[in-house]
């Protein structure tokens, strides 16, 4: 019997995350302790599907890069880790522009919430934009999935940036107010901005007066780069 050459895949859930746009989302999971709440959709909202999930500290999320699907894909992609201009094969990369637009992330399992017949699964360390559709969840099995001698030679060439992050002193009362609602807010902003989310061709600039903006939760965050550090200069409550 020949296998079919195309398959129907349903979204089984969507994930809510603090990342309201693609800009500044870490390039891989667990680079920031960002929280995600997975809500299962119609036909998949069945707590039995998660029976035993508490045995696993980490989970694989398989999802669709839904915000990039309409842009299609090419055989080669620009590799941010090679400075932004050099290319690599799409299948030699974790690019979001891929033949089937499928992403995969290992995240921390923070447990199930079941309320009024709605099943939710909490996770930590997400690199997904708010509202991303999930197509599968699987346990992370360390005896098979963790590879001791794995090599990533690009990591030596171009490691993930790590800049200090400061908040302008004038923001302290605003920050305290935000943290009454989002207790991880300054830790999240710090982890996200330490990775210098500017485009690759700007990342060598240790002074950059442009004000960059990113929305985390419902807060618009403005930042610049000064003396090699990231300075958060504005926090604006949206909506
Ligand atoms: N860990 C995943 C994702 C790596 S790429 C994998 O390897 O498959 C990570 C980037 O995906 C983030 O920086 C973010 O900009 C982008 N991204 C996250 N969710 C997305 C979505 N729903 N649609 C398009 N791009 C998304």
Secondary-structure topology with pairs:
Elements: E1 13-16, E2 35-40, E3 58-64, E4 76-78, E5 87-89, E6 102-115, E7 118-124, E8 132-139, H1 142-145, H2 153-157, E9 165-167, H3 172-181, H4 185-194, E10 208-216, E11 219-226, E12 229-237
The structure holds S-adenosyl-L-homocysteine.
The site of S-adenosyl-L-homocysteine (SAH) has 18 residues, from strand 6.
Q: How would you sum up this structure, described in words?
A:
The mean pLDDT is 95. Helix content is 12%, strand content 34%. By secondary structure, the protein is mainly beta. It starts with 12 loop residues before the first strand and ends with a strand. It has a 6-stranded antiparallel beta barrel with strand order 1-2-7-6-3-8. It has helices spanning 142-145, 153-157, 172-181, 185-194, and strands at 13-16, 35-40, 58-64, 76-78, 87-89, 102-115, 118-124, 132-139, 165-167, 208-216, 219-226, 229-237. The chain is globular. Strand 10 (208-216) and strand 11 (219-226) form a beta hairpin. The structure holds S-adenosyl-L-homocysteine. Residues 22, 25, 27-29, 65-68, 94, 96, 103-105, 127-129, 132 line the site of S-adenosyl-L-homocysteine.
